[in-house]
UniProtKB/TrEMBL annotation:
It comes from the Bacteria. SUPFAM superfamilies: Metallo-hydrolase/oxidoreductase (SSF56281). InterPro entries: MBL, Metallo-B-lactamas, RibonucZ/Hydroxyglut_hydro. Pfam families: Lactamase_B. Gene3D superfamilies: Ribonuclease Z/Hydroxyacylglutathione hydrolase-like. GO terms for molecular function: RNA endonuclease activity. Residues 14-174 form the Metallo-beta-lactamase domain. SMART domains: Lactamase_B. This is Metallo-beta-lactamase domain-containing protein.
């Protein structure tokens, strides 16, 4: 019998961490922190594992990698692009390679991967073949910058259900965002290795003046250098670096903010250039702030939106309802776990997809 335990990531928008027991092996799938209140998985009862597989570099999937000693200091695996960007973020560099699109062996198990959109280097994983588990990590089929393919069939599946039954297409959200940006300085806090560059590419093409923080520029340079994705994407990023304004670390201290859409990390405005710019804008009212991702509890993003000092316009980086249907149709699982979604949201999603056998607890067996 195979078993999947959601150490964290089921019944809440919590950090990704799943224990897979299959063919006598024990693997951890992701080891994240947050996004709400910097919560970390409790590994005290897990015991040793054979390997840790990382789906992508975002903090809620990698932020607790310093805890690997608690599970026996196993080898950690991620794609080459994830590894490179993680090193730039001062995360562990001793990570073995996963293919971006292909097959390898980890602890004697077949691991097949494919691009998952969402972020540079992000992959879905099928572990143990068609009778095993498909784990999507975070998945996005609507983006235009990061490559994506539908995953392979598997008997069990843990999939990114972050948006539940929400079904608004990205095209409609883009129209709403353009309206919210308006004229004059506007700050869009965003993850540099994620939707920030996608938004920058779209807004530049739409005729907006865009300013990029150093972190976004570094990620763009890495993607160009790694030749990640189609040639047209690298060319578009090169044009973006050429045409966008540099948004310096001290931009918030200058007498005047640039009359531009300022795209800066971090996504929650808790740190980095975005934090300093948000504080400046709130203090003197010299611009607007629009958040486009999860409003994590305990962060400036949530506080500023609740206080009416910032707006919120979602930019899809997870599957909407139509995308969940497409994932399930591709994988055809016998049992599924909807991850990164509160319990009530899981119930609503199960009602919207009645043909699927949804897990009601944090454990799958098959």
């Amino acid at each position: 019998m195979n078993r999947l335990l959601a150490v964290s990531g089921f019944g809440a928008k919590g950090p990704a961490c799943f224990l897979l027991e299959i063919a006598g092996r024990r693997l951890l799938l992701d080891l994240g922190e947050g996004p709400d209140f910097a919560i970390r998985p409790d590994l005290s009862a897990i015991g040793p594992v054979d390997a840790v597989l990382i789906s992508h570099l975002h903090h809620d999937h990698t932020g607790a990698l310093d805890l690997v000693a608690a599970v026996g200091s196993p080898p950690v695996f991620a794609t080459d692009l994830t590894r490179r960007l993680m090193r730039a973020s001062r995360l562990p560099a001793s990570i073995s390679s996963l293919p971006m699109n292909g097959r390898t062996e980890v602890a004697g198990l077949a691991v097949e991967t494919g691009p998952a959109g969402h972020a540079p280097g992000a992959v879905w994983m099928r572990i143990g073949g068609a009778d095993g588990l498909l784990y999507t990590g975070d998945y996005s089929g609507e983006g235009r910058l990061f490559p994506v393919t539908l995953p392979l069939p598997a008997k069990a599946m843990v999939f990114d259900a972050s948006y539940g039954i929400a079904d608004e297409p990205l095209a409609d959200q883009i129209i709403e965002l353009e309206t919210a940006i308006g004229d004059g300085p506007c700050l869009l806090p965003a993850p540099p290795a994620g939707r920030g560059l996608e938004m920058a590419l779209h807004l530049t093409a739409a005729g907006c003046r865009v300013a990029l923080c150093p972190a976004h520029r570094r990620v763009a340079e890495t993607l160009i250098d790694q030749d990640a994705g189609p040639a047209e994407a690298a060319a578009a990023l090169a044009r973006l670096l050429r045409d966008s304004l540099p948004l310096a670390d001290d931009a918030a201290d200058r007498q005047r903010l640039p009359d531009a859409v300022m795209i800066a990390g971090t996504a929650d405005a808790a740190r980095g250039v975005a934090a300093r710019l948000a504080a400046r804008i709130v203090a003197d009212g010299g611009g607007r702030i629009v958040f486009t991702g999860h409003l994590a509890a305990g962060t400036p993003a949530k506080t500023l939106v609740e206080e009416g000092k910032a707006a919120f316009c979602r930019w899809n980086v997870h599957p909407r309802l139509a995308g969940s249907r497409a994932l399930l149709a591709a994988v055809r699982p016998e049992i599924v776990m909807a991850a990164f979604l509160e319990v009530d949201g899981v119930r609503r999603l199960a009602r919207a997809l009645p043909a699927e056998n949804f897990a009601s607890t944090s454990e799958l067996t098959w």
